[in-house]
Amino acid sequence: MYIKQIKLSFSGAEFIQLHDTGPKFLNYGTNSICNITTELWKSDNNDYQEIRNMILPFEIPLPNDIPSSLSVNKDRGKIEYSLRAIISRKPNIKTFQGSTKVIQCAYIVDRYSLPPSIPNPITWKNDKPKKGIGYEISLNDRVFGPRYPIIVRVKLTFFDARLSLEDIVISLKEYTAVTIKSEIKKKRKNVGKKIIKGKQIPISKETQYNECIMDINFTIPDDCLSIFNWSEESFHIEVTHKIKIKVNFGIFSRHNINLEVPVKIKNMMSEEEESCLVAELLHQEEISRYLDSETLQPRYDSSPPSYEPNLPTNQTSTLPSYSLNNNTDSQTSQT
Asked: Which domains does the chain have, with CATH numbers?
């Protein structure tokens, strides 16, 4: 092939299903999220050169605020990305070959986050004896994900000894909303639920009133019963989550406790992935310092640092890939 230029284009868009136009055709509204174009290669004399085999490594820094790839409400709303190679080639009239060849592939973007450095817990409390039951229920944070489980501590004080604890239920709910013109299509689903029966919870009778304390862990994704999305928001698509806590003393008991709080579910890095990222950032800083020092005063007696990514021995790529449903937030496209 005779070519003189190769460009790379990375683009992303939000697609909103407007209405059905037939059994196999859908009409989508589109909002651009990003469009990055860079020149990968160009011939020296700006003329066509015959290329038989060529390897061109590349890296495209992506904006920190782009949302993850997702699809909600049966594709009623979705966010998709694509990577295109745009090749300027020599046209051939005989074979009807145009001057541009485009190679395109779908690209999945997953944002990743570090666990929160400063927890933001929440506590609900009621210690009035007249209510019959006193409680202090706390949630360890409001941002969760892999490596950072949901932990609910429940402390109950039985001012009325006749009350019997039936169960404690912790559930994670997902809410999706797709705005189509002036209409909002909403959907909710139960991501996961954990039930602790009252008989499993030991009751202490050493104080004036009977008491029990229970820590309940909900691990993501191990305790999730269905496929879920990370908390996300774009032009017309919103994915939110809530944790609901129920302490039941009977179906119609007036002592039942019902609590809920909005939370964020993020794609958090594992310890290995975090170590990999830190090592790579330190390595890039080393390269940057070397280049700066060489610009100011060349040193011919020292060799430059390796430009290979600084990775653990059991890894062959930068960050391990994520699945679509499994946000420092940053992304890098590499090949």
From this structure: 1-111 (2.60.40.640), 122-265 (2.60.40.640), 270-311+320-326 (no CATH)
Burial class (CB in 10 A: 0-12, 13-18, 19+), 295: exposed
Given a contact cutoff of 8 angstroms between Cβ atoms, the answer to whether 265 and 189 are in contact is no
pTM to 2 decimals? Answer: 0.74
Give the number of other CB atoms < 10 A from CB of residue 140: 17
pLDDT digits (tens, 9 = 90+) for 207-252: 788 999 999 999 998 999 888 999 999 999 999 999 999 999 988 8
C-beta of residue 226 within 8 angstroms of C-beta of residue 192: yes
Instruction: For 130, list phi and psi in degrees, rounded to 5.
Output: -65, -25
Between CA 259 and CA 166 the distance in angstroms is: 17
Of 236, 133, 141, whose CA–CA distance to 186 is shortest? 236
- Structure tokens belonging to residue 249: 């003393």
Given a contact cutoff of 8 angstroms between Cβ atoms, the answer to whether 49 and 3 are in contact is yes
Strands (E), the chain: 2-20, 26-42, 49-50, 59-62, 70-72, 77-89, 100-107, 122-126, 133-139, 143-144, 150-158, 167-180, 183-197, 210-218, 232-233, 237-248, 257-265, 331-334
